[in-house]
Amino acid sequence: MILQKVDVVGSIEPERFKKEYYNNLKPLVIKELSHSWPAYTKWDWDFFKNLVGQQRVGIYNNVKSDAYTPINTADDYTTFGEYIDMIKKGPAAWRIFLFNIFDHAPEITSDFSWPEHLMKGFVKMYPMLFVGGAGSITHMHFDIDMSHILHSQFAGRKRVLLFPFEEQKKLYRKPWEVLSLVDFSHYADPEKSKVDYKNFPALRQARGYEIILEPGDTLFMPAGYWHHMEYIDSGFAMSLRAMQPSIAGKLRGVWNLFGMRGIDTLMKKTVPQWWFNYKKVKIFEAANSFT
């Protein structure tokens, strides 16, 4: 993989942001964007435990999906309070994603503001909290709705690997899915890395970015960007999503949600192993043009 560091700024003027990053679909870390929000000093483990500790949540382990894995199905369930207690004790490779805490505590939407000076089109019904224990992993994928993302880290550090959407063939994208066939776990550690260049040689030519998000950082992740995240510490972050301004961008997100995903789900239910094998053939056919 050919990686460079994500640009980092303290703050940024809207004109520069749009010209250099938003319009060019280039990621950026803005270190101070969330610092004026009440959430920056207010939100911590005890605050959330007292607020929604009794809510039942789905939790996910580090095992990559296979031919039979349903879409977004949790590996276990617990209460949010019990989950917090578990990950506070030490390494715990369990994570929560797409938890709409604001459905249960709508009053805390006043703890942050929508950065509409940077971009428009925020989907204000769906701010989402992402929580993980130290050692948990979000495997390489792109977001199915093709939204622009502002991902604000509030607690803990997180290692992030990013690739533009166009690198999908070199990343061995599974057809009809948003996932990579490759396991990028511990990619930065030569002794633990599961990245298999022998069986996935096109990976060597994939061009992307990496960054370690610190508490208080906000990552701008352009629409369609592939991302792999590893929780160095137990922590949580919030994502604010904004639709693409173009009709074509919106339609691609709609197709992914209601067309592509529906077809893939149907095939996984009816002929899972055949469908998986078919996709593997197509994956390597696409990647072989780069080797």
Detailed description of the structure:
β2, α1 and β3 form a beta-alpha-beta unit. The protein is of the alpha+beta class and 291 residues long. The two termini are 13 Å apart. The chain contains 7 helices and 14 strands. α6 packs across α7. 25% of the residues lie in helices and 25% in strands. It has one domain: Sandwich (Jelly Rolls). A 7-stranded mixed beta sheet has the order 2-3-12-9-14-7-6, with no helix packed on it. It has a 5-stranded mixed beta sheet with strand order 1-11-10-13-8, with no helix packed on it. The mean pLDDT is 90.
Count of alpha/pi helices: 7
Task: Please give the order of strands in the largest beta sheet.
Answer: 2-3-12-9-14-7-6
**Overall shape:** globular
Helix-residue proportion:
25-40%
Largest sheet: 7 strands, mixed
Measure the end-to-end span.
13 Å
Strand content: 15-25%
**Helical/strand content category:** alpha+beta
CATH class: Mainly Beta
CATH architecture tag: Sandwich
Structurally, how many domains make up the residues? 1
Output mean pLDDT: 90
Poorly predicted tracts of residues? none
CATH superfamily: Cupin
The CATH topology comes to Jelly Rolls
